[in-house]
């Protein structure tokens, strides 16, 4: 039996484990990346590789040490170099003396045959069409539910009366989902999640709203972005990120299969500023920032790994876009050198800035009046 | 009369100010942190107390700077703020029509853009600390010039030498190289100031619209050479406020005053005699292995931080901040 492992990506890690097991594999569950994971990755990665590359490399090493013999990863199409990363990871790991098979899941639109061949390798027991349907339905529902629980936590955290209650509730929800074994379980859990969040005591305020855009891995994985969403929530801010795994998978795998451009509306919004595609999520970052502005958000934070070209291109466009739409902009570059305290200082100051701006708008002050950015939220 | 205490604990210096209700600074102390923030804050409180002889009625305390959380626990603060907001607030108070704040401290440099009394943008150094106080200190030391006179050397120069200022280490080796070639010290120092200003404007100030009035604050603002280099590069007057070196503390005090504190958590100046200690342990609760820090007052844990999951956040209530 294959012992499969794969990169850690938030809560989807559990769902993927269930999928791999349902297909008849053994799973070495990847650990949540820690400082050690990052130092391992940094040690063997090229210096100017990006943060996700280093974290994932570290995760692979830990998984191989724990006995995995197969690594599953996703490919991609250029110009972002992430498409080459799987190959490079494989080369580095083989040169370190690890014996394993690397299976790359390429986007279906362009590499359907490769994808089917890869998936075939991962199916280690006989399954009927009905089985595939059952597994697919379950995994999809679980991903959606995980996203839902997380979205609710972002919505409620800035309003909570007792600090930390939302985080605890969210962890409980994630555990419940992790324990689910069937589609019916998930339907029941969905109701329970809503009830759990309803029970949290909430303040009646209109919190500052910040949208998060940027590169997918650092946006989705809290270990990579130093839990910026929780940090914002604790400051009394409603933070919403532009990307969630279920919708991302849908847009970029399913739509791609039918040769439909994923996230068409977002790309259209970005087109006056960003006509060419530059790989990664550069164009989506700009488009999503505009989307947030149109929905009345106060500001946008862009998360990008150090040396990430698509995001650098977006970073040079975003200040202009945000100024035109009248919302605040804070770029955050992440790598293994980034400290949490430094990030907190900047994020806090950014929130103060947005609060002062909002207050000023409300009070319609004249010139020379001083507005301090302290909110009642925290 | 009511008074407010502001504390700014930075990497290099720890500053405390006492401000009255109207915002006038009554007393300011500036001490070296020397890697011991707890000791520095206590020393500051002791100094203030000896100068005030108990005449101040402290109604609010604000802390800022990289050691703000620690200072808040020791002194008992009502408001804890990041240094960007604190500096902006203080600059606005001292120079109401300010539109650009240049702030260079021991390890940090930042730019704050204000329009009509609101902070609209800011940036902080991320990858390099060239041009900050520690680097200038080190160079003055290496050249055997007291740091106070460093700037006036620069003003004496007529022919500045071009120094590579992108990185502190390379700036130093370039300076040494120019010295070996026989350039005059004052020309090298002026060249260094220009290089550091260039570096600041290219990295920290990049893409920001710098409009007058420009306020220059932080420890480095005392350096007349740096002020002159900024004025030369920007082509406009740069204003250095009187309390430029304690602006963070002033901002913290102003924020404490305006926070509408009903009853201050201030421990009193006696806090300088209480025994505070910090220790840490690695939590083994999950694979994160967070380093958790305990702050102890007379042996009892009164504050804790560093854990990601908040497992250790709750401490048996002891009136801690």
From TrEMBL, chain A:
Cross-referenced Gene3D superfamilies: 3.40.50.11900
PANTHER family tied to this protein: BIFUNCTIONAL PROTEIN [INCLUDES 2-HYDROXYACYL-COA DEHYDRATASE (N-TER) AND ITS ACTIVATOR DOMAIN (C_TERM) (PTHR32329:SF2), BIFUNCTIONAL PROTEIN [INCLUDES 2-HYDROXYACYL-COA DEHYDRATASE (N-TER) AND ITS ACTIVATOR DOMAIN (C_TERM)-RELATED (PTHR32329)
Designated name of the protein: DUF2229 domain-containing protein
TrEMBL record, chain B:
One Pfam short name: BcrAD_BadFG
Domain ATPase BadF/BadG/BcrA/BcrD type positions: 5-256
Highest taxon, organism lineage: Bacteria
Keyword vocabulary terms for this entry: Iron, Iron-sulfur, Metal-binding
Iron keyword on record: yes
TM annotation in the entry: none
The keyword Metal-binding is assigned to this record: yes
CDD domains assigned: ASKHA_NBD_O66634-like_rpt2
Name of this protein: CoA-substrate-specific enzyme activase
Source organism: Thermosediminibacter oceani (strain ATCC BAA-1034 / DSM 16646 / JW/IW-1228P)
């Amino acid at each position: 039996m294959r012992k499969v492992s794969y990169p850690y990506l938030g809560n989807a890690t559990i769902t993927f484990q269930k999928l791999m097991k349902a297909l008849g594999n053994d799973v070495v569950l990847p650990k949540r990346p820690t400082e050690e994971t990052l130092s391992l990755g940094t040690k063997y990665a090229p210096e100017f590789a990006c943060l996700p590359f280093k974290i994932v490399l570290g995760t692979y090493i830990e998984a191989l040490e724990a006995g995995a013999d197969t690594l599953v990863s996703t490919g991609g199409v250029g110009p972002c170099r992430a498409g080459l990363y799987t190959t490079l990871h494989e080369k580095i790991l083989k040169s370190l003396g690890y014996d394993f098979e690397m299976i790359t899941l390429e986007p279906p639109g362009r590499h359907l045959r490769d994808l089917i061949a890869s998936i075939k390798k991962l199916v280690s027991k006989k399954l009927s069409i009905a089985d595939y349907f059952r597994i697919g339905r379950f995994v999809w529902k679980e991903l959606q539910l995980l996203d839902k629980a997380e979205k609710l936590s972002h919505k409620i955290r800035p309003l909570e009366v007792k600090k930390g209650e939302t985080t605890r509730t969210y962890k409980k929800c994630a555990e419940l989902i992790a324990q689910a074994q069937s589609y019916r379980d998930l339907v029941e859990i969905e109701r329970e999640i809503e009830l759990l969040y309803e029970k949290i005591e909430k303040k009646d305020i209109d919190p500052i709203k910040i949208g998060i855009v940027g590169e997918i891995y650092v946006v989705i994985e809290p270990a990579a972005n130093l839990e910026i969403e929780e940090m914002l929530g604790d400051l009394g801010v409603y933070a919403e990120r532009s990307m969630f795994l279920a919708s991302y998978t849908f847009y970029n795998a399913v739509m791609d299969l039918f040769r439909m451009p994923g996230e068409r509306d977002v790309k259209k919004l970005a087109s006056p500023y960003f006509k060419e595609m530059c790989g990664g999520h550069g164009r989506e970052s700009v488009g999503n920032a505009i989307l947030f502005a149109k929905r009345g958000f106060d500001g946008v934070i862009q998360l990008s790994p150090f040396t990430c070209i698509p995001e650098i291109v977006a970073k040079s466009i975003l200040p202009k876009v945000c100024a035109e739409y009248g919302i605040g902009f804070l770029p955050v570059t992440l790598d293994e050198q980034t400290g949490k305290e430094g990030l907190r200082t900047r994020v806090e100051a950014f929130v103060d800035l947005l609060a002062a701006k909002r207050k000023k708008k409300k009070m319609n002050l004249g010139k020379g009046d001083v507005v301090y950015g302290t909110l009642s939220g925290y | 009369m009511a008074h407010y205490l502001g504390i700014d604990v930075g990497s290099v210096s720890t500053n405390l100010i006492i401000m009255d209700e109207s915002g006038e600074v009554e007393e300011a102390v500036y001490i070296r942190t020397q890697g011991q923030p707890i000791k520095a804050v206590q020393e500051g409180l002791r100094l203030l107390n000896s100068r005030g002889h108990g005449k101040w009625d402290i109604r609010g305390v604000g802390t800022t700077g990289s050691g703000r959380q620690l200072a808040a626990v020791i002194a008992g603060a009502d408001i804890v703020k990041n240094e960007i907001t604190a500096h902006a607030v203080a600059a606005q108070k001292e120079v109401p029509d300010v539109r650009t704040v240049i702030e260079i401290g021991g390890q940090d440099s930042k730019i704050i853009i204000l329009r009509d009394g609101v902070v609209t943008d800011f940036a902080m150094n991320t990858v390099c600390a060239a041009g900050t106080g520690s680097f200038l200190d080190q160079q003055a030391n290496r050249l055997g010039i007291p740091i106070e006179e460093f700037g006036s050397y620069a003003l004496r120069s007529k022919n500045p030498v071009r120094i590579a200022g992108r990185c502190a280490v390379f700036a130093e080796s370039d300076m040494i190289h120019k010295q070996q070639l026989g350039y005059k010290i004052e020309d090298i120092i002026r060249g260094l100031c220009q290089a550091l200003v260039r570096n600041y404007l290219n990295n920290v100030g990049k893409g920001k619209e710098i409009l007058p009035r420009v306020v220059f604050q932080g420890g480095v603002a005392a350096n007349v050479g740096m002020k002159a280099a900024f004025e030369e590069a920007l082509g406009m007057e740069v204003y250095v406020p009187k309390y430029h070196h304690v602006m963070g503390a002033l901002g913290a005090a102003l924020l404490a005053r305006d926070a509408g504190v009903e009853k201050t958590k201030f421990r009193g100046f006696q806090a300088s005699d209480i025994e505070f200690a910090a220790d840490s342990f690695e939590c083994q609760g999950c694979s994160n292995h967070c380093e958790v820090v305990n702050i102890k007052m007379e042996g009892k844990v009164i504050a804790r931080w560093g854990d990601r999951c908040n497992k250790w956040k709750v401490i048996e209530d002891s009136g801690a901040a």
